[in-house]
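Table S5 (text form). Sequence records supplied for joint modeling of the two-component complex.
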Amino acid sequence: MAVGDSDVWLKSGENRFRIATEWGSHVSLDFARFEYTGSPVENTTWGRIKSVYR
Amino acid sequence: MQGECATSLRRVETHSEMFGRAGKGRFRRAGGGGARVAALLVGASLTFALAAIAASAGPIVEAECEAFVNYYNIDGLRIQKVFCSGASGYYAAFGLDVIGEWIEVIVDAPVTGYYRPTVAYQTEYEETAGVRMTVIDEDGEGVNRVSHFKLEEGWGIG
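The corresponding structure-token record, covering 212 residues in total, follows.
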């Protein structure tokens, strides 16, 4: 079980992905798992602190 | 060794399995009287904390690699679905024995966003391997479509 070096972006619904061998040989692939980590940056609403009370 | 795969692919534990094991362990170790009450309180706190973590975690989806819809075989063994007693669903995609060979799989995501990918795979005993995942039907700008995986220890037989 290996974790990828970076998150990937999936759209809602069906996504087609490819798993290719980069090095090594005789690879057997069991399953791929995707754990949601966050929404796209462009949909994020950023707030702004106007004042600080002490 | 065509038509077989390694027999010791790891299985993934679900959150509910991990949660249940933690609760049982706590109560078995508890003594009588006050110690038992204290253990119950600690157990309850742990239960709520784990429930909060589980509730805040995002959705998880999986795709079986043996359900590939396309593949690219360069040489050697043909890429195929084979029985594998240690794999999830007892099957795996087998025959990726040349660098550059690939399979294509479909996964159904519940929401749009970033996902942390993991891949359950293996190679021959004491060999290492690396694979690359590419999401190929999404062309949006500024989103990552590629993730690399390294398997530094192999086990089982190929």
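Note: Chain B touches chain A through 78 residues (CB under 8 Å).
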